[in-house]
Amino acid sequence: MSYIVIAHNSLLVNAAGQLMQQHAFDHLSDDKLSRMNNCMRQLLQDQISIKERKEREEELLNFCLEADLYDESVTMQSLHKWQTAISYYGLSAEPVVLMREEL
Q1: pLDDT block averages, 10 residues each, the chain of length 103
Q2: How far apart are CA 27 and CA 36, in angstroms?
Q3: Contact, 60 vs 33, CB < 8 A?
Q4: Helix 50-64 crosses helix 3-21 at what angle (to 10 degrees)?
Q5: Which of 18, 39, 41, 99 matches a 20 to 30 Å C-alpha distance to 11?
Q6: How far apart (Å, rounded) are the C-alpha atoms in residues 64 and 50?
């Protein structure tokens, strides 16, 4: 497995975990939160197939896109980390980050 893929997975998991600690996912159902935790745990495993890794990445990215980035407990540092993580997957959070910086 490529070091770059592992680094991207780690960054995504770290960013999602940090947002989770800052209550950005509190509005999600218990089922979604459980699935999100499972995705994060699986992405950090060494023994996961490429197909499974891609599926878990996609699922976690979908959960991340449901984050409440406007929650007052979410820090700018977390937003920048999240933006960096999702940019590796061709997604952008720039409008949210820029709007938060203006506040």
Answers
A1: 62 92 94 95 88 92 87 88 86 56 50
A2: 13
A3: no
A4: 30
A5: 99
A6: 21
- Measured in degrees and rounded to the nearest 5, phi and psi for residue 37 equal -60, -40
pLDDT, position 93: 63
User: What is the predicted pLDDT for the residue at 52?
Assistant: 93
* Residue 13 burial (C-beta neighbours within 10 Å; 0-12, 13-18, 19+): buried
User: Are 85 and 11 in contact, with CB atoms under 8 Å apart?
Assistant: yes
Q: What's residue 19's pLDDT?
A: 93
Distance CA 63, CA 100 (A): 20
End-to-end CA distance of the chain: 41
What's the predicted TM-score (pTM) here?
0.78
CA distance 17 to 3: 21
Q: Residue 66 and residue 49: Cα distance in Å, rounded?
A: 26
Determine the Cα–Cα distance for residues 57 and 80; give it in Å rounded to an integer. Answer: 19
